[in-house]
Amino acid sequence: MNIKENIRIAIFSIKSNLMRSLLTMLGIIIGVASVIAVITVGNGGRDYIVGMIRDMGSSAISITVNAANSDISNSDYITDDDINAIKSLDNVQYVSPMVMTMGSLSVEGNDQSAIGVIVGGNSDLRYVMNGDCIYGRYFNKTEVEAGRSVCIIDSTSAMQLFGKKNVVGEFISFNYNDVSVSFKIIGVTDMMSSFGGDSEKMLENMNSLTGGSTVTSAMIMVPSTVATQIMGGEARYDTVYIMAKDENDLESAGNAAVNRIKARHNNLDRDCYTVTNMATYIDLLDTVINVFTIFIAAVSAISLVVGGI
Q1: Is pTM beyond 0.70 here?
Q2: What is the residue-level pLDDT of the chain in tens, covering all 309 positions?
Q3: Alpha-carbon distance values, 187 to 166, 198, 222 (Å)
Q4: 3-state DSSP call for residue 213?
Q5: What are the sequence ranges of the domains in the chain?
Q6: Number of neighbours of residue 105 by Cβ within 10 angstroms
Q7: Residue 45, SS3?
Q8: Residue 122 three-state SS
Q9: What share of the chain is helix, strand, coil (3-state, %, to 5)?
Q10: Alpha carbons 188 and 211: distance in angstroms, whole number
Q11: In terms of Cα–Cα distance, which of 206, 154, 174, 176 is closest to 106?
Q12: Three-class secondary structure of residue 162 per DSSP
């Protein structure tokens, strides 16, 4: 039986069972398309998530005090002198402490108020947050050292509290326990987008912490010197963020920074600090999403084979 005869028989069979042939073709087309769609969506989602984290600064390292360790004492916490020592390392470009607390924010001159989060850092915080000001500027080293009451506000927070994005020159008060500080806004940034997320969604998530109330949520960045004063503590930090000059030097930069801190605190023989870098999260997410995509594609392919049989 030659090729022409095979083709003739195939065409005859298709015409004799036209509806069955069309349904079979439709099933194959939909099945193949679904497998392609799953792989495409998986790869697209992976690229989006990995890119989102990479935008946060894939050369970022965090050093955290192991507070759960029973051997940790107040003297093990990181100081401003430690930060200066870390910044002097050859493979380190930027270093900033990270101080966060919640309170309430109120706008002077009107009745607008919000559940507020302040993020305290030094003049390098702008690089760690990886976000430029869309209006105004970031606070500088002089303002941090002098403990000046200036702040940067997220653009979404500005819209919710002031009804506009450009609020440079306006004043906002932060209340924490019995302490109230009036901050002059010197810059507006897409700060929460710098964390790798949609700022409106993040504010919505913050709002859920209040039990679903309709109270507005907002976030501002302030000098770490002011943040620690508000919290009633001294300038000792449990977390610092480091930007390496080259993301390929992340591990060595992190180890060098920890060794520098340990040498200064004379705790070389104790496990006081944890180093985490964004590149680790990128690789882990990439692997997890790839495995998940392959699994879903395999399930789709098996369904296609079973359906064909």
Answers
A1: no
A2: 577 777 777 777 777 777 777 777 777 777 777 767 766 766 665 565 555 555 555 567 888 898 777 778 888 899 999 999 999 998 899 999 988 888 888 887 777 777 888 889 999 988 877 777 899 999 999 999 999 999 999 888 898 888 899 999 999 999 888 888 999 999 998 855 444 444 444 455 444 444 444 446 788 999 999 999 888 777 789 889 898 888 778 788 888 999 999 999 988 888 889 888 766 666 666 666 667 667 666 766 666 666 555
A3: 8, 19, 11
A4: coil
A5: 3-54+284-308, 59-271
A6: 25
A7: helix
A8: coil
A9: 50, 25, 25
A10: 28
A11: 174
A12: helix
CA pair distance 76, 147, nearest whole angstrom: 24
d(CA 210, CA 157): 17
Token couple for 260: 């520098």
> CA angle, corner 27, sides to 21 and 29, nearest 5?
100
Task: Give the integer Cα–Cα distance in Å for 228 and 233.
Answer: 5
For residues 127 and 131, give the distance between their C-alpha atoms in angstroms, rounded to a whole number.
Answer: 7
For residue 292, the one-letter residue type is F
How far is the C-alpha of 202 from the C-alpha of 207, rounded, in Å? 8
Residue 243 and residue 57 in contact, taking contact as beta carbons nearer than 8 Å = yes
Say if residues 213 and 207 touch (Cβ distance below 8 Å): yes
